[in-house]
UniProtKB/TrEMBL annotation:
<dbReference type="InterPro" id="IPR044992">
    <property type="entry name" value="ChyE-like"/>
</dbReference>
<dbReference type="GO" id="GO:0005634">
    <property type="term" value="C:nucleus"/>
</dbReference>
<dbReference type="InterPro" id="IPR029062">
    <property type="entry name" value="Class_I_gatase-like"/>
</dbReference>
<dbReference type="GO" id="GO:0005829">
    <property type="term" value="C:cytosol"/>
</dbReference>
<protein>
    <recommendedName>
        <fullName>Class I glutamine amidotransferase-like protein</fullName>
    </recommendedName>
</protein>
């Protein structure tokens, strides 16, 4: 049987809170376990259905990007996959998985914000430079981002703050004006994403639930919204709902909640992101919120309400397994890579992007502090 081997470079952008780290290890370790488990379930389904689809094998390597560790660009493929016969010969010659070319970049969650600047957060600017370099030069490499990963990919590839009228709405990453979004908040899947092959697979699974919405753990104080430069100074309440979810083609919004209009990004064959954490279960999110509450000085009522929402679906009754399987299917699907490669090159030519921080920076930083992002108070030292 044919095996589809996928090498994922996981970029660790933070360390889990102490109790989670002691029990589960780094975020990269947690993603490895979850994605390998998802691949095993998909492989078993293939066997049960006597399908000829390839078996999926997930291998990961981890990089501490806060400390400046990145995959070498020589590990990123520039040419299409080899034919099956030659690929098998190479696999027999090379037994060490770590030397296989990198097929995808996965960016974890973090307590930091994608728009942070200053020497303390220089690693965020370096990460965005890396994302843009891989995007433009290595069109065969896919991206997945979770929470901060979702936001920093949006900031690197779609945020435009030059003030130029480009005609197409891009995005901005900002502090949630209504504060944290924590626990289970049903995510309404967008019609546009549901119409894609990957979206249909997700929607079919979710339709088994009442309402057909995605239920995964959330804990974030930032969000991604559609951003049209001409409406930069307009209050959110005066904008049509579509303005908050508008994306330049072929980008699609996965879904929305009232607090976060863009709950994920999808660029066919190239990018998939989730604002939520399918890698978090009740234990991980509970311990994370308790620690964030301690660091941020949250009152008892806020912590209690957050924990109530975290337990909204009960133990192991959310959609984390489905969400993980969708990620594996996205990474394993070769369909659309050529189109994505061409579109990425065209986008780099047609979109003149300036990645400076948005205007009204002082107001944004004050909003960050007021809403209590998941960053320890002693790290909130940005200049205003």
């Amino acid at each position: 049987m044919i095996t589809r081997r996928i090498h994922i470079a996981i970029l660790d952008t933070d360390v889990p809170v102490p109790t989670v780290y002691a029990a589960r290890g780094l975020y990269s370790s947690q993603f490895r376990v979850l994605l390998q488990s998802a691949a095993s379930r998909l492989n078993q389904s293939v066997k049960n259905n006597s399908s000829s689809a390839p078996q999926i094998q997930i291998h990961t390597s981890a990089y501490d990007v806060v400390g400046g560790s990145y995959p070498t660009l020589g590990m990123l493929p520039k040419t299409p996959p080899l034919n099956e016969e030659r690929q098998k010969e190479i696999e027999e010659e090379e037994d060490d998985e770590i030397f296989r070319p990198i097929d995808a970049i996965l960016i974890t969650g973090s307590a930091a914000s994608a728009y942070y600047q200053g020497e303390q957060y220089a690693w965020i600017a370096s990460l965005q430079d890396f994302i843009r370099r891989v995007w433009s030069r290595y069109p065969l490499v896919k991206f997945f981002g979770s929470c901060f990963g979702h936001q920093v990919i949006a900031q690197a590839l779609l945020a435009d703050n030059s003030g130029e009228q480009l005609g197409s709405p891009l995005v901005r990453v900002e502090a949630c004006p209504m504060g944290y979004e924590i626990g289970i908040h049903p995510i309404e899947i967008s019609r546009e994403f549901a119409a894609t092959g990957l979206g249909k697979t997700l929607s079919t699974s979710l339709n088994e639930r009442e309402g057909g919405k995605l239920h995964i753990q959330l804990v974030h104080g930032d969000r991604v919204i559609g951003f049209n430069p001409s409406a930069a100074d307009e209050p959110e309440t005066s904008l049509p709902p579509s303005a908050l979810t508008a994306l330049p083609q072929p980008w699609l919004n996965i879904g929305s909640t009232p607090l976060s209009p863009i709950q994920g990004l999808y660029y066919p064959g190239r990018v998939l992101t989730y604002q939520g954490h399918f890698e978090f279960d009740i234990f991980v999110n509970t311990e994370t919120v308790i620690e964030f509450g301690r660091r941020g000085g949250w009152d008892a009522q806020m912590v209690a309400e957050s924990l109530r929402k975290i337990n909204a679906c009960g133990l192991e009754h959310d959609d984390s397994r489905v969400a993980a399987e969708i990620v594996v299917q996205f990474l394993a699907d070769d369909v659309g890579i050529d189109i994505a490669s061409r579109d990425a090159q065209e986008m780099n030519v047609s979109m003149k992007l300036d990645y400076r921080y948005p205007t009204k920076r002082a107001e944004m930083v004050r909003s960050v502090v007021a809403n209590g992002l998941a960053t320890p108070p002693d790290e909130m030292s940005l200049e205003v």
